[in-house]
């Protein structure tokens, strides 16, 4: 069983997309999760609801609005074109933006839960010992939520690998640019090429299973339940 | 003045506010005493910078202003050590890691050494232990050590012994006293346990419902009839005595108080050493004449200095012994029958004497 070059391209693209998305999600999701974990009120509740929205919306709904937003006629699409000289819709950048939004709850929620479990008292104690807020975060919050960072990153990565609807709407099906694994698989099925479809689908199952197994095994000792 | 100046106005909600204006000595240990809900912990939080009083509040230690008009120093820039009731050790660091956490962030490295702290608080065996495996007493000793290693100019302690058994709390108290003397570090010690306060404090701050009720030296406040302290069942006066001689035959030590003898269980202290002694008011009875046919060993000639006016069953007397005072709680009936009056010379029969661990040179 060997994969052809188009399939290898799709796999490479998928992994690149998932990696870039995961890094961006950690960079954006960590401060957002921290803010949500330390605030109560209407505004944080509203933000929390928006972050959680991709959990219940059909991906095509999200994809549809993102497509409108990314189109050259829209303000954002126009601005992007002015800035970079290329179209935003049906580009790799569009996939990254879409994936970040789509996978946001999978990163923010485990981090937020972990941050909420860190007693305020420990941070106060760190403060009286001379730790500034950023130092408190680095020296107390990060080590105490290390496992949750692993969970968040794995879930964000896995969820991006597995997405389909959003990618289809805003990325189209351009080999090497936006044709990710799930789209390539859809292509095979549509053209009744079941052997190739089996190969790709099987590879995706093995990969996802391996990732989740590693994740659960590393969380096993603490009995951490991964929330999705 | 170079004291600890506190002018705090802090409102938590409509049910509780803390308002006080005082200046405290920066020598020795000041106890903040009051019932729960009186604002003791809130006061410490305001001093540490974990809560900020209303604009206009002032917190300063000597010439260092932590809060003043248009000036608020954040907690991490205040030279304050804080020992919390629940220790608050970092669970991801072992004991040594917790100590180093403070040491690496301390602004002045030379005030106290790691070795000195480890020895004083008897932590040598524990350095590599994780914090979960420690007993409550061990946790508090680590917390005290950690706070000291941040080289504070003021140490705040919020009921650090509240969850400890007697032996563990005595061990902590010994360590604290040693360090207080060795480091000349002022401490503010919150407690609702009068015996702890009596052992440790030089100065006392009485709080009730967020207000300052009384402040003064421990010995003075303990001997007054008009404070909260004397209304408590366990009210007791504290006097200082020096070790006069040891009686090996009877296994007793004779202390000298204002020229009179006081016998206690034999001590190991060298002669001439000062001890603080606590005598509960309910353990003193009054006689008009000195009885020789009694088993009570300690009988001191005293003068009635003040009598409480009360319609209850019991009244409180303040008795002067030289320049020191004792308290006695007797029934009003006995006082009537003995026709006790202020100025009368009587004898105080003392049933029990509690020795406090060490006397302090302050106050």
List the helices and strands and how they pair.
The complex is a heterodimer of chains A (228) and B (363).
Chain A: H1 5-37, H2 42-56, H3 59-70, H4 75-84, H5 92-116, H6 120-128, H7 133-144, H8 146-162, H9 165-171, H10 181-190, H11 194-219
Helix pairs in contact in A: 1-5, 1-8, 2-5, 3-9, 5-8, 5-9, 6-7, 8-11, 10-11
Chain B: E1 4-11, E2 17-24, E3 29-33, H1 40-48, E4 58-61, E5 64-68, E6 71-72, E7 80-83, H2 95-105, H3 114-120, H4 136-149, E8 154-158, H5 166-183, E9 187-191, H6 194-200, E10 203-208, E11 211-217, H7 218-222, H8 228-231, E12 236-247, E13 252-257, E14 260-265, E15 274-280, E16 284-287, E17 298-307, E18 314-321, E19 324-331, H9 332-337, E20 345-350, E21 354-355
Overview of this protein structure:
The complex is a heterodimer of chains A (228) and B (363). Chain A is an all-alpha fold. Chain A is 77% helix and 0% strand. Chain A contains eleven helices and no strands. Chain B is an alpha+beta fold and 363 residues long. Chain B has two domains: 4-222, Rossmann fold, CATH 3.40.50; 236-355, OB fold (Dihydrolipoamide Acetyltransferase, E2P), CATH 2.40.50. Chain B contains nine helices and 21 strands. A six-stranded mixed sheet of chain B has the order 7-8-9-3-10-11, sandwiched between helices. A five-stranded antiparallel sheet of chain B has the order 2-1-4-5-6, covered by helices on one side. A five-stranded antiparallel sheet of chain B has the order 14-13-12-15-21. Mean pLDDT of chain B is 88; it is low at 359-363. At the A-B interface, helix 6 and helix 7 of A face strand 7 and helix 2 of B.
